[in-house]
């Protein structure tokens, strides 16, 4: 998926140091993922991770991951993370990453679940524009800050196994 100044491609092992650095910058108050966590995520066969870049060969400016769980015909997906460097927010990277994740879920006809900080109005609005609804709240979800999270869900798309939507 590309536009004139936006590229979404697969996250790979060479991106891990940059992901860990962005985690420290953006999530310092809530247990940022170390490089070993990203490595484990990429090693899991049920996960897909994407990278956002300004253009091919440039440094990663965002990343996102989703897992597909359950058996064929009964899948569900969970978004693990969507993160965009502060210097690149408001430029469409988050929306493009979310679209890549939702395409994974749509390909297997799965509903999608996620957690988002209750004070992250920008992310909540993005998710709601893409069909998510709040389904619950997890008190003290983010640690060590103790911030609450909404659980949000988007129903399964009519598109399954590459069919029309």
Automatic annotation (TrEMBL):
Keywords: Acyltransferase, Transferase. Residues 6-157 form the N-acetyltransferase domain. Its EC number is 2.3.1.255. Pfam families: Acetyltransf_1 (PF00583). GO terms for molecular function: protein-N-terminal amino-acid acetyltransferase activity. Gene3D superfamilies: 3.40.630.30. InterPro entries: AcTrfase_RimI/Ard1, Acyl_CoA_acyltransferase, Bact_Acetyltransf, GNAT_dom. It comes from Gordonia insulae. This is N-alpha-acetyltransferase RimI. CDD domains: NAT_SF.
